[in-house]
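For practice. Supply one:
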Amino acid sequence: MKCDNWLNKVLLNKEQRQTKQRELLEKFNSPILSLSINIPGAKKDSEDAKYIYEIALQQIANLQLKEYQKILTCKDTGYEALFCFNIDAKELKTLTCKIEEDHPLGRFMDMDVIDTNRQILSRKNPRKCYLCEENAKIYARAQRHTLEELENFISQKVHDYKLSL
């Protein structure tokens, strides 16, 4: 696939990530945790995104799970990580949802869990828009908020979190 525009890069990256996930599932027959950062817009490697990524990695490490493999990547399509853990997929999903919901920066972390049947375990409640608490997918498609509003919100949350430490 030729990467002549942003969408092609994103799609190619998604395809490569899914291939790597399948390889890990075949090799270890254990659940996969796929981490990415929920940052709107084309600039996926910003300082805020990097900071959120580092915090997410710390939170995952704090779970102290037996890890078979970890792959960390940073591309212009964003910061990503793949983990293969020795844990039940549903238990892993419960742990990752807790991070996403309880950590001050958790709503910017996307932690997908893929079970050994290659099924992505879904969260019980859909994600909410950063600004208005409505269903995020609906608002993102409708572009109800400007990119600048969303970026400012994320930067403020990162700033507030750093101040709280």
Notes: The beta strands are 32-37, 67-75, 78-85, 109-114, 120-121. Residues 6-28 form the longest helix (23 residues).
